[in-house]
Design goal:
Helices cover 34% and strands 4% of the residues. The chain contains three helices and two strands, in the order ββααα. A two-stranded antiparallel sheet has the order 1-2. The termini are far apart. The mean pLDDT is 77.
């Protein structure tokens, strides 16, 4: 009489595992179950070892600290031969320092200077919309006060 192993149960899930009769009999039905069993065994072994040897600590975690350090560096790039110019005060076309315009020609010069500054000067740029609205209201006022060809105001008929 001869006995031969035909099947056994999976050591992880208990499902039957067939055995062909050659080699070592399988203990698990799949590689996944073999891996899970190994993870449990090795975790139990690590839990029994001291922390200094790679084991698990039984003390609760008191605090976790994450420290982030930000370093800001400023680098001045060499300019290509240009000297930085200090902002110069606005001037009239005649070269005189700017004051409030006194006549129509000075207003035209002041508006031309403002147009140039609104494009290049970062201190003027945030006020572009306010300047545009003020100019539109001024233009409406100028147009409403201009007499027509017959001498009457545009609002009059």
């Amino acid at each position: 009489m001869r006995e031969q192993l035909v099947e056994r149960s999976c050591a992880w899930c208990g499902e039957p595992v067939a055995y062909s009769g050659r080699g070592r009999p399988p203990r698990f039905c799949s590689p996944v179950h073999r891996r899970r069993a190994w993870e449990v065994r090795s975790a139990e072994e690590r839990a029994g070892r001291p922390v200094s040897e790679g084991g698990r600590s039984i003390d609760p975690v008191r605090e976790i600290v994450q420290r982030t350090e930000t370093v800001v560096r400023t680098r001045v790039l060499p300019d290509s031969g240009r000297m930085l110019q200090a902002p110069r005060p606005a001037q009239r076309l005649s070269g005189q320092p700017y004051t409030l315009p006194e006549d129509a020609i000075e207003w035209i010069e002041a508006l031309a200077a403002l147009r140039r500054e609104a494009v290049t000067n970062p201190r003027v740029a945030p006020f572009r919309e306010h300047i545009a609205n003020a100019c539109e209201r001024t233009l409406e006022a100028l147009r409403s006060d201009v007499p027509g060809p017959d001498g009457a105001s545009p609002g009059e008929s």
